[in-house]
Amino acid sequence: MKKRLNIFMSVFFALMLVLAGCTTTGDKADPEKDDDNKDPNVETPAEKKVLRTNNHSEPGALHPGLAQGTHDSWVIDHVFEGLTVKAPDGTIAPGMAETWDTSEDGLTWTFHLRDGVQWSNGDPVTAADFEYAWKFALDPNNASQYAYQMYYLENGQAFNEVGATILKEYNEAVEKAEKDGTEPPEKPVIAEADLQPARDKVGVKALDEKTLEVKLATATPYFLDLTSFYTYYPINKTVAESNPDWFKEAATFVSNGAFKLTEWKHKESLTLAKNDSYYDAAKVNLDEVVLYVIEDNNTAWQMYQTGEIDLLDNLPSEVTGKLIADQAPDFHNAAELSTYYYNLNSDVKPFNNPKVRRAFGMAIDRQTIVEHVAQGGQMPAYGVVPPGMPDVSGDFRENAGALFEENYDEAKKLLAEGLAEEGLKKLPELTLLYNTNEIHKVIAEAIQEMWRKNLGVENVTLENVEFQVKLDREQSGDYMISRAGWIGDYVDPMTYLDLWVSDGPYNDANYSNPEYDALVNTAKTSMDPTVRMEAMHQAEQILMNDMPIIPVYYYTRPHVYKENVTGIYTLINRQPSFKFADIE
Questions:
Q1: CA–CA dist 571, 76 (Å, integer)
Q2: Domain Solute-binding protein family spans what residues (predicted)?
Q3: Given Cys at both, which of 77, 173, 273, 342 links 262, Cβ 3.0 to 4.6 Å?
Q4: Are 234 and 82 a contacting pair, CB within 8 Å?
């Protein structure tokens, strides 16, 4: 019975398949008839153009005034726009501002916004949004790490330092609580009555909806360049004042750039969509961009190979070397205005001693690092300012040359002298902190071995943490040695040299030298290009003599993207831009 039923069912299904096949063929037999039935006014929807890439780390803050790393800035640079933008050739071009004027003395700038520029929610972008954003970064209650970039504004530093004594006492109390293992005190809030008079004196003012007046403390040759940097981006004042947490979720996120944030699966992915309110939307070809949050470079590379990622710029080092050797058509390598280095915490023994710091810096074989470990065409670094920075004439790095050398015998001698000066018979246990990333891991392992072999240091332990955790620990001084890197915010050596002034917000090495501070101040305030550059050359030499940071190499930007992806460009101090990218 069962067998007969199976035969019957087989015949039945076979017949149905034949009939179904005839019906399908009949429906498609007359394509001209189908075309006649189509509504000529209805377009067939085009397939979405979606670019997939990897942001590598979860953003810390997608807020122009609070961002502090490339895990923030790559997204921010695509969803916001400043008064000016960097064109693909690196020149300054109009952004939200269509035109600008400057006084003869270079102290007053007047920016005129474009007609009709809008936020992603439809609100008009106004000069008041820029004034609000710049003063937000300076407000001491907001603790912006990049507040110092606004010190170029008249009275900017004075506003940021209102209540400085109170905040200093608070920070000291927090450090003491951490050492004692006790509960830290609550952060004090500087009263609005104390802030408002200083806020009103800051040199940025909206004269009307479309006109922004900026007054500088001193004439700054690279100020226009700064206006394309993310700390100078606007913030929707109305949105921010009604919801201070607007930037933490996609549902409340408002921006003014080529893209807008439409989905944020924390620690998984971010989705950006084309912002139809953007004034230049006609040139934006992509419908969406998906940025995954994948810390493991090997995993991301596998996803690229299997077609799950279209653009990737954090490559495993051995992959980079092979792609270069194979001259892979989808591989691209760009010069980058950035330096890979190690912080040495000058507040912690033995790195409070400059001889010890120099010993560790002189015991690294940089050529081996770039040729056999990093493998991305990087250059060994013997100064902190990378190539590509202008001097009075020529290149700043080329003119300065190498400011120290590798010398293992001298390194051993300096280490012994430094330890003796600190009353130490041997080194304490040392920990090298780095953020989770395969390239940082293999470099740390290589340097750990070099210190063992070249310096006789056997007790360096490696510790890896998430990128934001690393940043937080560096800021709090909770480390001994840490991996770091810096991409120039603007094209002038000052973007590096003002990092290590005493009490500088990014002075994670806790370095202090009054002579260095004075030279940096001279370079910031002088109107004479020759005086400026000479002061910066002297400052860099002092920094390398004291060596609170150890330069390792000058970055390149190796990256890959599929051959059907076009329009990607990489600026010397930015990550790859997909603003005008397309998928063919």
A1: 15
A2: 92-507
A3: 273
A4: yes
Q: What are the residues whose beta carbons fall under 8 Å from the beta carbon of 580, sequence distance 6 or more?
A: 88, 283, 284, 285, 567, 569
The rounded distance, in Å, linking the Cα atoms of 556 and 558 is 6
Helix (H) or strand (E) holding 132: helix 127-138
Q: Which long-range contacts (CB under 8 A, 24 or more apart) does 169-178 make?
A: 174/476, 175/476, 175/477, 178/476, 178/478
Of 351, 301, 295, 269, whose CA–CA distance to 469 is shortest? 295
Pairing of strands 549-561, 460-465: unpaired
Give dist(CA 73, CA 164) in Å, integer.
28
**Segment holding 273, helix H or strand E:** strand 269-274
Characterize the bridge pairing of strands 288-292 and 269-274: antiparallel
Judging by beta carbons within 10 Å of its beta carbon (0-12, 13-18, 19+), is residue 398 exposed, middle or buried?
Answer: exposed
Interatomic CA distance for residues 484 and 443, integer angstroms = 12
Helix (H, G, I), strand (E, B) or coil at 297: helix
Domains of the chain: 50-154+202-310+562-583 (3.40.190.10), 335-557 (3.10.105.10)
Any idea which residue has 């920016």 for tokens? 111
- Torsion of Cα atoms, 232 then 234 then 237 then 241, to 10°: -60
For 387-392, which contacts have Cβ atoms below 8 Å and span 24 or more sequence positions?
387/335, 387/554, 388/335, 388/337, 388/491, 388/572, 389/337, 389/488, 389/491, 389/492, 389/493, 390/491, 390/492, 391/533, 392/529, 392/530, 392/533
Q: Would you say how long the chain is, in residues?
A: 584
Q: Is 294 left (phi over 0), alpha (psi -120 to 50) or beta?
A: beta
CA proximity to 338, closest of 59, 61, 70, 567: 70
pTM given for the model: 0.83
Cβ density class 314-338: b for 16+ within 10 Å, e for less: bbbbbbbbebeeeeeebbbbbbbbb
At how many degrees (to 10) do helices 354-362 and 529-546 cross? Answer: 90
Three-state SS at 292: strand
- What pLDDT tens digit does each residue of the chain (584 aa) get? 333 333 333 333 333 333 333 333 333 333 333 444 455 555 556 789 999 999 999 999 999 999 988 889 999 999 999 999 999 999 999 999 999 999 999 999 999 999 999 999 999 999 999 999 999 999 999 999 999 999 999 999 999 999 877 877 887 888 788 778 888 888 888 999 999 999 999 999 999 999 999 999 999 989 999 999 999 999 999 999 999 999 999 999 999 999 999 999 999 999 999 999 999 999 999 999 999 999 999 999 999 999 999 999 989 988 999 999 999 999 999 889 999 999 999 999 999 999 999 999 999 999 999 999 999 999 999 999 999 999 999 999 999 999 999 999 999 999 999 999 999 999 999 999 999 888 999 999 999 999 999 999 999 999 999 998 999 999 999 999 999 999 999 999 999 999 999 989 899 999 999 999 999 999 998 889 999 999 999 999 999 999 999 999 999 999 999 999 999 999 988 899 999 999 99
Both tokens of residue 330?
A: 């989808």
